[in-house]
């Protein structure tokens, strides 16, 4: 039996929920028009990868997503205001602007705040 997270390497052949998801394909056109949310996740550090793993905002196909989450911005601990996590990527290279240019009535762009590198201290409990 596959029991996530204890047995992480669950084979698809076991007939668990993964098999059902793969068979149904959650990227069908009617899902975007119906009740389902298809949330895609873009990390601003993905362009630091090497080779084919390098990923840019333009690589996101907004036709597949009802929502695209941009990760991450951070919270200034003194002012409690949002600031760029990686200003060189997010601002100087316009990653946030490039990703938000993909927005449409069918696709919302969201900003994720925090992440494990921005989770120390009490600033989020003070917001």
UniProtKB/TrEMBL annotation:
Pfam families in alphabetical order: Glyco_hydro_18
Single Gene Ontology MF annotation: chitinase activity
InterPro entries: GH (IPR017853), Glyco_hydro18_cat (IPR001223), Glycosyl_Hydrlase_18 (IPR050314)
All copies of domain GH18, residue ranges: 36-127
One GO cellular component term: extracellular region
Single GO biological process annotation from the record: carbohydrate metabolic process
PANTHER family from the UniProt entry: CHITINASE (PTHR11177), CHITINASE 10-RELATED (PTHR11177:SF359)
Designated name of the protein: GH18 domain-containing protein
Organism the protein comes from: Graphocephala atropunctata
Upper lineage: Eukaryota, Metazoa, Ecdysozoa, Arthropoda, Hexapoda
